[in-house]
Design goal:
globular; 5 strands; single chain; 41% helix; 5-stranded parallel sheet; 164 residues; alpha/beta; binds adenosine-5'-diphosphate
Length: 164
Amino acid sequence: MSQKRIAVCPGSYDPITRGHLDIIGRAAQLFDEVVVAVVSNSVRKSKTLFDCDERISFIEEATAEWPNVRAEPFGTLVVEFARQIGAQTIVKGLRAISDFEYEFEMHQLNRMQAPEVDTLYLMASPQYSFLSSSGVKELAIFGGSIGDLVTERVARRLQEELAR
Ligand code: ADP
């Protein structure tokens, strides 16, 4: 029997956006299992708006239609986490040119740490090329319309947290 193909999609997901979901959904078609790895608060330098449990529950709800996707917290190097769960591949989304330099560097560093774990980059879909969690939070603060950018539950929680 051939080995299961497992991918890790790492990120802060504070909160998950439709841009993230686009990448996760495409990865779910390419791999047997996709693990959305959510950076836990203990290892983050800056504070997140939503705690790790809530960020994970947003992802679980938004990915419920894909049976081969699950979300887990992690607090180690991504390659370390990939090894722990038996994943051969890290999947990342690439937006405008600005993502490239950072990702290029991270790719080299990760390959040095774990040559057996490769990274696959999926180009952002055009409608989400400029979408980021921080941009959505900024819009929510000023009462902008975010219905097309995040799920209904995330939009409601953002409004509760920010539009005060
Ligand atoms: P953000 O940069 O929005 O804070 P994360 O740190 O949670 O997002 O990023 C997790 C992964 O999702 C990264 O690989 C990032 O490039 C990717 N990503 C984020 N937003 C998008 C998007 N709109 N389209 C494609 N990929 C994205």
